[in-house]
Amino acid sequence: MRRVRYYEYGGPEVLRLEQAEVPEPGEGQVRLRTEVIGTNYVDVQFRTGTAGVFRRELPADLTGEVVGTVEAVGPGVDPARIGARVAALADPAYAEQVLVEADWLVDVPTNVDIGTATVLPMNAPVALRVLRTGQLAEGETVLVHAAAGAIGHLAVQLAKLLGAGKVIAAASSPSKLDFARGLGADFGVNTSEPDWAEQVRAVAPGGVDVIADSIGGAVTATNMDLLAPLGRTVLYGAIAGDFGTPTFMQLAQLKYVVGFSLLAWRRARPEQARAEIAELAGWASAGRLRSVVHASLPLADARRAHEMLADRARTGRVLLTI
Fold first, then answer.
1. Ranges of each domain in the chain
2. What sign results for the dihedral spanned by CA atoms 169, 151, 131, 251?
3. How far does Cα 68 stand from its chain's mean position?
4. Separation CA 157–CA 179 (nearest Å)
5. What integer pLDDT is reported at residue 184 of this predicted model?
6. Domain Enoyl reductase (ER): where (predicted)?
7. Among 3.90.180.10, 3.40.50.11030, 3.40.190.10, 1.10.3720.10, what is the CATH number of 2-119+291-321?
8. First and final C-alpha spacing in the chain
9. What is the pTM of this model?
């Protein structure tokens, strides 16, 4: 089978398309024949060898959400699953056949498009749980950073579905803000402008109730100042390279920050995590939640896909197809 991995850190040119043995599923695993792979920006950070949380030992594989067909099962998995069309979070993911955990397979509704199918195992559950970890209540104001990204554009839609009063999209260009408004955002703030925080205050003079923060760094500190009393920031990424450090005085103003990890959530509340996936699949099937695909490329063009992931003009998902 063909797969993509890298043997040194660097730009997209370090990605190698190579031949590898077809993997055999172990206990509790299934093997999928890949149809499409949803790529994620975090692998750009892994690939460049960023220190700290974005560090992978070499040689390294790439992660992603795979939609495909179950073609083999390991011990402890019902053979009736063979032939099912499913989606799953995979690591490694950039390959013609991948191994995934059977417990977290998502059956793909027949009326859901391929781009939306790719977000059901990971991106959509993250977006939903970030908002719920922030205890979003009906009528509250939400600020979504990276609102045109793979998770952010879903968080915009889900915030409206959960009853948010105002959804403020934060993104780095006017075109991205137009994109987020097209998905339901009520307002947009341009984070490439130095007064972006003032733009938020103009929209929400009383403060923001919930902030979905995938940026980290100095943005997290600014977010804390933008919160209303008893407001909540949920930090689920660190595009800036670090998670930032809220000050004691910020926290002392009855403001809260909490970190979120999908894998930690699955371990802590597996049944609730599965119920939320089913909830999301239902919204997708009903046409109330959709993912937007920026580009779809063949596996051999993984380098080009990574260039697009790093491109600040990108909106929505970049897919690799087999």
1. 2-119+291-321, 123-263
2. negative
3. 19
4. 12
5. 94
6. 10-320
7. 3.90.180.10
8. 11
9. 0.91
The hierarchical CATH code for the domain 123-263 is: 3.40.50.720
Strand pairing partners for 64? Answer: 90
Same topology, domains 2-119+291-321 and 123-263? Answer is: no
What was the pLDDT predicted at 53?
Answer: 62
CA distance 39 to 309: 8
Residue 123: count of CB within 10 angstroms of its CB: 25
What tokens were used for 186? Answer: 């009520």
Listed residue (247, 246, 203, 255) closest to 228, CA to CA:
255
Which of 290, 314, 313 has the alpha carbon at shortest distance from 184? Answer: 290
Query: pLDDT of the chain along its 322 residues, tens only?
Result: 999 999 999 999 999 999 999 999 999 999 999 999 999 988 998 998 875 566 788 999 999 999 999 999 999 999 999 999 999 999 999 999 999 999 999 999 889 999 999 999 999 999 999 999 999 999 999 999 999 988 999 999 999 999 999 999 999 899 999 999 999 999 999 988 899 999 999 999 999 999 999 876 677 788 888 999 999 999 987 664 555 566 555 555 667 888 898 999 999 999 999 999 999 999 999 999 999 899 999 999 999 999 999 877 778 899 999 9
